[in-house]
Specification:
The complex is a heterodimer of chains A (about 575) and B (about 280). Chain A is an alpha/beta fold and about 575 residues long. Chain A is built from 23 helices and 20 strands. Helices cover about 40% and strands about 20% of the residues of chain A. Chain B has two domains: about 120 residues, no CATH class; about 80 residues, no CATH class. Chain B contains ten helices and two strands; from the N terminus they run αααααββααααα. In chain B, helix 3 packs parallel to helix 6 and helix 4 runs antiparallel to helix 6. The chains are: A alpha/beta (about 575), B mainly alpha (about 280). The interface between A and B is large, with 66 and 49 residues.
Chain lengths: ~575, ~280
């Protein structure tokens, strides 16, 4: 069989870069395959995708060497238009690619550009919409849709063109866990129904492996370091070696000393079959492992009492929300998009006024305090650092929050330097912000909040869109801050974060708190997981399969064990 | 959430059922004629027509209350200022001076000035409803296709409609950025000095612009990947077919425009002058 995509000794260097981003790529992909391309950020995986869909070299220019053919065409002799009728690309952010004002219009976009007549357009739109089950929503505007529905629209918008290859660039990045799971199911369904070749670019392996893939291509530093069947790759240590988080169930099985080469179905938790020997291995590991009991009997630092909020009357976002946070806690707020998590935090910080209820800080009522005066007690770090940064230089950006507060320039400098040291940015103090990486910018925004001396920091999705190394980096930093006595509250979709770095989670559904428990307890409760659009942890399935009576304790033990192992490994 | 001052109000009515192209023709012909003519008879006729259009569109006054209130205040303010600054423009224009009563100092209330200001106000009263009518009965998605049907290249007309599409998103983002900046002492409230406020707005503008550039990058990639710009022409999913009613209305508009201009220019200028015998 002829490959549908083939790279031969292919290299690419962006015009603005000093080094090639792709180096000597040799790769063949055959019709009907489903392939996962993974790698840490900067590994070149997205660049590889852009070479296939034609954005390179037609929109993003650079120096190309070697050969790249897609569906029999040498891409450099083609055009982005010719390629777009063969490769359908679903980009990362469903919001950013919504062109039309309604669902039907957005799906129609490619057809309009191809001068299809209205009558035929309508038929094709309906067909594509039915394939992804969005046909009930054709007349809706984007803001009436959930994140998952928007993604379905993006998918319909590319399959409407009868493409032969579907390319998904980090499809899970902006979705809540349950929606991410159904996105993976949908991709699997699409592949079966449309008989296409599917490429998924993602670094969240465990989530993609929810449905079987045929091959995994692992990239690092612009090269392909592994091109293997999933079970071969997963049994090796390659993922870990190249900065990718391996599925939790695999880490567990490795700790338990199971022989991964002999196990069936290690390429996905749905496929996994544990034999008796492995079950014994897991049980004896559990008998050895133990967890640290942590008690926090500090004073209450933040108390939210019977809070109601609505943007429009009759359409409440928060319903009588009440909870307490103790000093020095590190906790997560989870739940589906639009459940009211961000709104709650905005009310706590005073950005929005509640229609009912009170907020107390260290016992004092701050409900009527201004944004500015609350900022010295509770800091808020937005998800996207680019939304916060307004200065050119790091020093100025961090100093901004304490200027005009009566401090002398000398005192300001002292405070800023002290904060930069805490945040590991001191050596960059005279750098322009534009020279920093995304993760460093995130640190700058945290520093710019920290400098005002808040006792609580609220972070919206602190690890969104970051690979394992950056995730670990930022979370260890937050843990360090927490160790210095700062209370940390995080809004997150990341179930790993919730398990590994928090002792307590507030679960939101439709503006109400439906659970207040440890991450492990939340993720081992199937009803709750479903209700709040979360995703059960694969550890839970292993615990049940092995007949372990207390899966919550089992998960806790694993998290503590894993932490020790990783600290030991360093 | 950002409140919408001007927006499309979907309804079933004769005006809504016309194609966007037709409505653009109505809007352009009426506003040009209204702008060019000072002939009271033509203006009164246009007023009747624009109110008729409104009645046909079934848009209720309550749905456009904000704009209407604004319009009334604007017309009244305008009339007062016009009189204060140039109370003798009417007599000068019409070449006669009929004093009704004396007010104070150099201010006399003349029939000619009243008539002149009546005409000016009439223009606003015609112009605004036509604009509101166009915006509130034309589906924004049809906007680009109607522009392109009048010969505007589709790349340009699509950019216009895309810009309209993103206004609410950018408003939302501005709101979020300004909140987080306020927490760090960038004050934008009413109690802040004007220049301070301008300086502070700049601190919000930088992140907003950078993010919008990112957004543009992304959307243009997404558009190219779906063949935008492939051919010289494109079809429009939302374009309404031209019906007999459309051709009828366009014909009528052209007729009104031509006849209106002829009547206006009858006396050698664009004035209707009841004071000259």
């Amino acid at each position: 069989m002829e490959p549908i995509i083939s790279f031969k000794d292919f290299s690419f260097q962006y015009t603005a870069q000093k080094q090639p981003t792709l180096k000597n790529i040799d790769l063949e992909i055959y019709p009907g395959e489903k392939i996962l391309i993974c790698g840490a950020s900067g590994s070149g995986k997205s660049t590889l995708g852009n070479c296939i869909n034609g954005l390179i070299p037609f929109s993003l220019t650079g120096k190309m060497e070697g050969q790249c053919t897609v569906d029999g065409i040498e891409t450099r002799n083609s055009s982005i238009f010719e390629l777009s009728t063969r490769v359908g690309t679903v980009l990362q952010d469903p919001d950013g690619q919504f062109v039309g004002l309604t669902v039907a219009e957005d799906i129609a976009f490619a057809l309009e550009n191809d001068c299809v007549e209205q009558q035929r357009m309508n038929e094709q739109i309906l067909e594509a919409a039915k394939t992804v089950s969005i046909e009930q929503r054709l007349k809706n505007a984007p803001y009436d849709l959930s994140g998952g529905q928007k993604q379905r629209v993006s998918m319909a918008g590319v399959i409407v063109d009868d493409v032969r290859i579907l390319l998904f660039d980090e499809p899970l990045a902006n979705l809540d866990p349950a929606t991410g799971k159904s996105a993976i199911e949908l991709i699997d369904l699409l592949k079966k129904e449309t008989d296409t070749t599917v490429l998924i670019i993602e670094h969240r392996i465990e989530d993609v492996l929810w449905k079987k893939v045929d091959r995994i291509i692992l990239m690092d530093d612009g090269r392909i370091v592994a091109d293997l069947r999933p079970e071969e790759l997963l049994a090796s240590s390659l993922l870990k070696d190249h900065g990718i988080r391996e599925p939790l169930y695999l880490t567990l099985l490795k700790y338990a000393g199971a022989d991964l080469k002999k196990l069936r179905g290690i390429d996905g938790i749905n496929e996994l079959v544990l034999d008796e020997k492995t079950k014994e291995n897991v049980k004896s590991w559990y008998a050895r492992a133990n967890k640290e009991e942590v008690y926090n009997d500090n004073d209450v630092i933040l108390k939210v009492e019977d809070l109601d909020f609505s943007y429009q009357e009759g359409d409440p976002i928060l319903h009588s929300v009440s909870f307490e946070v103790k000093k020095g806690e590190m906790m997560a707020i989870v739940g589906q998009n639009g459940a009211g998590k961000s709104t709650l935090c905005k009310v706590i910080c005073g950005f929005e006024k509640p229609s009912k209820g009170k907020v107390f800080f260290e016992g004092g009522d701050i409900t009527e305090d201004s944004i500015r005066s609350r900022a010295s007690k509770i800091g808020y770090v937005m998800q996207n650092p680019n939304q916060m940064i307004s200065q050119a230089m790091i020093f100025d950006e961090v100093a901004m929050g304490i200027r005009n507060t009566g401090l002398s320039e000398e005192e300001i400098r002292e405070k800023v330097y002290a904060t930069l040291k805490i945040c590991g940015l001191y050596e960059f103090r005279n750098w322009p912000i534009s020279a920093l990486s995304f993760g460093q910018k995130k640190r700058v925004t945290i520093a710019s909040i920290l400098v005002m001396g808040p006792k609580i920091i609220i972070l919206d999705e602190p690890t969104a869109g970051q690979d394992f190394a950056h995730y670990t980096d930022i979370m260890e930093f937050l843990k360090e801050l927490n160790g210095k006595g700062i209370t940390i509250i995080m809004i997150t979709h990341d179930m790993h974060l919730m398990l590994e770095y928090t002792k307590r989670s507030l679960v939101f559904t439709d503006g109400r708190i439906v659970a207040d428990a440890s991450g492990s307890a939340v993720l081992c409760d199937e009803d709750l997981v479903k209700k709040a659009s979360l995703k059960e942890t694969s550890l839970f399935k292993i615990a049940t399969d092995c007949g372990i009576a207390d899966p919550v304790d089992f998960v806790d033990c694993f998290i503590d064990y894993d932490r020790k192992e990783r600290e030991h490994g360093k | 959430m950002a409140s919408k001052v001007l927006n499309y109000i979907p309804k079933k009515s004769f005006i809504h059922s016309l194609s966007g192209t037709t409505k653009l023709v109505i809007f352009l012909s009426f506003s040009f004629l209204c702008g060019l003519s000072f002939d009271t008879r033509v203006l009164l006729f246009l007023l009747c027509m624009s109110f008729l259009g409104f009645a046909l569109s079934r848009i209720k006054l309550s749905e456009i209350r904000l704009m209407s209130t604004f319009l009334v205040i604007f017309i009244v303010m305008n009339a007062i200022l016009l009189f204060l600054f140039n109370p003798e423009y009417g007599p000068e224009l019409y070449g006669s001076r009929t004093v009704l009563f004396h007010i104070a100092g150099k201010y006399d209330m003349t029939l000619e000035q009243l008539f002149y200001q009546f005409n000016v106000s009439l223009k606003y009263v015609i112009g605004f409803p036509i604009a509101i009518l166009f915006i509130s009965t034309t589906n924004p998605s049809e906007f680009a296709s109607s522009l392109s049907s009048l010969g505007v290249p589709y790349r340009i007309s699509y950019s216009v409609s895309l810009a309209l599409r993103y206004i609410p998103d950018i408003q939302q983002e501005y709101h979020e950025i300004s909140q987080s900046q306020e927490a760090r002492g960038v004050a934008l409230g009413k109690d802040v000095k004007f220049f301070e406020r301008i300086k502070n707005s700049a601190k919000i503008l930088l992140p907003l612009v950078l993010n919008s550039l990112n957004r543009i990058d992304q959307i243009s990639n997404s558009m190219q990947l779906r063949s935008f710009g492939k051919h010289k022409k494109r079809t429009w999913f939302m374009r309404k077919k031209m019906t007999a009613a459309d051709y009828g209305v366009i014909g009528l508009c052209v007729l009104i425009f031509v006849v209106g201009l002829i009547i206006t220019n009858q006396g050698g200028n664009n004035l209707y002058n009841p004071f000259m015998r």
